[in-house]
Amino acid sequence: MIKIENLSKSFGTVEAVKDVSFVVNDGEILGFLGPNGAGKTTTIRTITSYLAPTKGNVYINDLNVNDNPDEIRKQIGYLAEHNPLYDEMVVYDFLEFVANIRQIPAVDFKARLKDVTELCGLKKVIYRPIKELSKGFRQRVGLAQAIIHDPKILILDEPTTGLDPNQIVEIRGLIKALGKEKTVIISSHILQEIQATADRTIIINNGEIVADGTVEELMSSFKGHTMLELELKNANKEDIHNLTSINEDIKIDSVLENKNNIISKLEYPNNIDPREEIFNYALGKNWKILEMTRHKVSLEDIFRTLTVEGGENND
Amino acid sequence: MTNIGTIYKKEILSFFNSPVAYITIIVFLLINSWFFTSTFFLINQSDLRQLFSLAPLTFLFFVPAITMSLVAKEKNDGTLEFLTTMPISDTEIIVGKFLSAVSLLSTALLFTLIHFLTLMIVGTNIDIGSLISGYLGLIILGAAYTSIGIFASTITENQITSFIISFLIIFIFFILNKILILVPDFLTSIIQYISIDYHLSNISKGVIDTRNIIYFGSIITFFLMLSTRILEMRKWR
Ligand SMILES: Nc1ncnc2c1ncn2[C@@H]1O[C@H](COP(=O)(O)OP(=O)(O)OP(=O)(O)O)[C@@H](O)[C@H]1O
Ligand SMILES: [Mg+2]
Q1: How confident is the model at residue B206 (pLDDT cuts 50, 70, 90)?
Q2: Domain spans, chain B
Q3: From the CA of B105, how many Å to the nearest CA of chain A?
Q4: What is the C-alpha to C-alpha distance for residues B149 and B167, in angstroms, rounded to an integer?
Q5: Which CATH architecture has domain A225-296?
Q6: Contact B89 A70 (CB under 8 A)
Q7: Is the Cβ pair A97, B10 closer than 8 Å?
Q8: Taking Cα atoms as reference points, which of A261, A176, A74 lies closest to residue B88?
Q9: Which CATH number fits domain A2-221: 3.40.30.10, 3.30.70.580, 3.40.50.300, 3.80.30.20?
Q10: A296, containing H or E segment
């Protein structure tokens, strides 16, 4: 079990993670979701003891990570963000190097190597220098490196960034397969990724956890809401926000400018239906409504709603 | 301990996988040969001290060149995160890298034995004892320089910066003995003790006493410990 307790981490004046607490249960695949600069990598780095917490603690099976880094690292397989690898090394040498540091006995190495090369589909490239590999194969080497010691815990920081759609599907399948017997934390800023792989999702924004639950739980907490998409002509961005004056329960989720038109997404509880008022309001302002579509809340909408502030002013 | 060996092996492999090792050995050999033979024919005499006074100067350039990438490149490439999150201590990383660089330097140095073999073949009388202690002294000196180079490599992501910093620090140690006349009397013995040259001149004369060993040992320990601390500091940024 991984337990994160009131974790805070600051870099100078930047508070990257603020008082975050959560638990990852054994055998669970946890999706760690958040926009750029949300604090995913920072949190993960305190789990792998690359960084020490400014405040709070991280425990793995009741062992404090900061006090027992070596013991903890033995139990973890880690694929860091951007998948750093020794480019000039041949895949085989690299995996042997990792196995040596992991103190896998030479007699077991052959068997482990065989397992991971099969699992990660590395057979074809095993004697190639890493720098010659395509991004997808690099990623597989990164995964192979992370699982060669058959760790109980697997931590993957944005494992599919930069892959083409086919590769993404493959790597996701691989992660799901690995997750059957391991505790996995997988971070991403892509919702579909988490939806496709994780049992439970934690959404982090501006260093704070804004949602924690299964996809169903997240959906149901938003079930009482309706999303309304508007496309308007002659409107301006600032004016859109005045729509909340119709009913204070209306929330503006996003306003985009597309050529001369404004596309905006609103959200309101199911017990009200402000469409008529919106129509009249638009008429009064001389806006031309090109489109008004109502739809059910999707996970995408939830993510956007939860992370709409602040996510974009970082990085 | 096995971890140090693993790091060592990896670094040696990468030295010889890239041109670094070959260039180092060849250029080192060429420079030394050129000086050696030119003075040799000029004065028409053979003297071990030619090499032993020249090598520290060539080390001044070669050690920073060998060590500049060792940590800085890993920082820059992000592989340091990979390495430091493995079950391996920061000390083991630093010591493994240190030993690999000392080995490369020693290998380059041992190639210069060719000169002495040549001299012996043409019949010159060479004192084997002082030859051995001279080489030993150079290796210890190289190790001290290397620890400085490793330190410089841990404080930056930029290899060129690393080169310049280690060059400057080594240079200061190098010239200390030469500026002795400029310092007040009560300081001379201290400066002399800190100066690398002073201890080296003992060793290359064939005298290895414990004071010299303690001196070089302290430099190496100091800079390697400092490097380890700096690696650890990433955690608290
Ligand atoms: N070493 C550092 N020094 C200073 N600030 C940092 C450092 N690392 C991260 N930050 C800041 O901390 C915040 C969180 O960054 P973090 O990398 O954890 O976000 P993330 O969720 O992983 O984002 P991304 O999706 O872009 O990878 C950001 O504002 C970032 O600029
Ligand atoms: Mg990140």
Answers
A1: low
A2: 2-236
A3: 22
A4: 8
A5: 2-Layer Sandwich (3.30)
A6: yes
A7: yes
A8: A74
A9: 3.40.50.300
A10: strand A288-296
